[in-house]
Amino acid sequence: MNQDELKQLVGETAAKYVENNTVVGLGTGSTVKYLVDALGRRVADEGLSIVGVPTSDRTADQARALGITIKDVDDVDHIDLTIDGADQIDKNFQGIKGGGAAHLWEKIVAINSDKNMWIVDESKMADELGSFPLPLEVIPYGSTQLLKRLEAKGYHPEFRMKDGQHVLTDSKNYVIDLHMGHIDHPHELAKDLDSMTGIVEHGLFLDLVNTVIVGHEDGPEILEAR
Ligand code: 5RP
User: Fold this and answer.
1) Is the CB of residue 25 below 6 angstroms from any atom belonging to ligand 1?
2) Which residues are annotated as catalytic?
3) Does pTM top 0.85 for this prediction?
4) Are strands 174-178 and 157-159 parallel, antiparallel or unpaired?
């Protein structure tokens, strides 16, 4: 199986965990795309009744087109389960997200969810975090000065660009990726980034996930994190 087939495997496996009459946070990315496709099929074929809370405009568009009822995070009183992808997960179930520039909305939905599930192909599992660059969503105003402050701290920041333009998040902010190589103390780093003016949110998702589904050649592996 190639990486894309492993993503499809975990997306379709996760869709089976969604129960009738629940509110489901819908993550963002190429793995979640398979999840949303599978949920769309369950809605059409089984009459599954769910409300989806999307974490990006992309996911909202896909879900709506498949007939899944969508509500804004501020229009639901709770979220039962959020299912999302991840860019890297370490052995303590700490994660990096934001490769798709959606981590601000993803974190808002995650922290307002009763349970969180991540779905990944096996290449995302690592002993430690940091070989995947850590995304920051930052306010455009003053972002070049912020980049210098991050450089001075030795965090190896780079603006995320596409075709010579800043990549914009759904909230119209910029993204800075930190190329740190390895992150020895994720909680300390998170605390430092939380304290820096101009950073709206970082992609460290710590102590958040309950269940991880990992796609392997021989089938999905279900890991209970906490
Ligand atoms: C988007 C994310 C995604 O969940 C993460 O990048 C994984 O994406 P993919 O499933 O395409 O590998 O955090 O901001």
Assistant:
1) no
2) 106
3) yes
4) antiparallel
